[in-house]
Structure formats: C-alpha cells, structure tokens
Amino acid sequence: MRSKVREIELRVNGVLYEVPIKPHQTLLEVLREQLFLTGTKEGCGCGDCGACTVIVDGKPVLSCITLAIEAAGRDVTTIEGLSDKGALHPLQEAFVRYGAIQCGFCTPGMLLTAKTFLDKADHPTEAEIRKTMAGNLCRCTGYVKIVKAIQSVAESKEEPQ
Q1: CA atoms within 13 A on the CB side of 100
Q2: b/e map of 51-67 (b: 16 or more CB within 10 Å)?
C-alpha cells in the first residue's frame, strides 16, 4: 500500500515552503531531508533527548515525534533561524562564551528550548532553568556551563538599557 503524497505549506524561519510529504513523515525528516536544514539533530528518535527541538508557534516541540502535517500553516523556527542577519542570538553568544557547546550535537535543541523559556520567564532561578532544560540531554557536560550561559542571558535582560 502506497502512502499518498500531499503538499503542505510550512513557514520555516520566516520563509514559506510548499513541501510534498507523506502522511507518516516527521517534521524532523522534512526539515533535514527536504528543506536541507540540518541544524536540527536526531538523537533518540523517540522524543526523549531534546536534540530535535524546534520552536512551533513560540513553543518548543520535539520534531522527531511531530508529524510534518501538524506544522502545516504554523510558524517553525529552527536553529538556522535563531541568528539575525548573521549576528548570533545572545544565547548563542553566551553558549560560546561559557563553553557550553562541547561536541555541539545537543546545542541546537538546548538553545531553542532556552529561548522559549527566556521569552516568558522573568528573573528565573537556577532551579527553574534546570527544570526547563531537563528534557534536553547532553552527554558531554555536567550542565553547569549550560545553566550559567542561560543565567547570564536572563540577567542581561534585567539590566536597564
């Protein structure tokens, strides 16, 4: 039995794409294999590690367990869309500054999860940051540098401009 191909519209990083998909294709597969946005990583393939996290309509979503059809007509942001005209996002700068990027495999998911958290959190505590980031696994660090990087961006948001 052949799966019917269907065309959907995906808005990814502000660009509208018309993409042919099969009903069973995940958002991760479409991003990587059809749109060639390979910054989003597949770690576990079952929604446990957070490496595949993208932002859909302002919320972190595990793209390895989200069907592409579910993202049709919604705003999707991948790690490629986090920087602005080549300028790193403050979280990206902080991850570099604090050495929170070890091998880098988990970094895209970490950054996008942290961004959605900081977009809503005022004055987050270390415990709140750790709880939020608990769904993003890193095999290289003890998370200290990651938490410090996120804290530094949260604190910089609080400083008067």
Answers
A1: 25
A2: bbbbbbeeebbbbbebb
Note the CATH architecture for domain 90-158: Orthogonal Bundle (1.10)
Supply the pTM of this predicted model. Answer: 0.92
Phi, psi dihedral angles at 118 (to 5 degrees): -70, -25
- Domain residue ranges in the chain: 6-81, 90-158
Q: Report the pLDDT value the prediction gives residue 141, as an integer from 0 to 100.
A: 76
pLDDT of residue 1: 56
Q: What does residue 120 show for φ and ψ, rounded to 5 degrees? A: -115, -25
User: What is the C-alpha separation between 63 and 52, in angstroms, rounded?
Assistant: 5
pLDDT digits (tens, 9 = 90+) for 38-57: 999 999 999 999 999 999 99
User: At the top level of CATH, which class does the domain 6-81 belong to?
Assistant: alpha beta
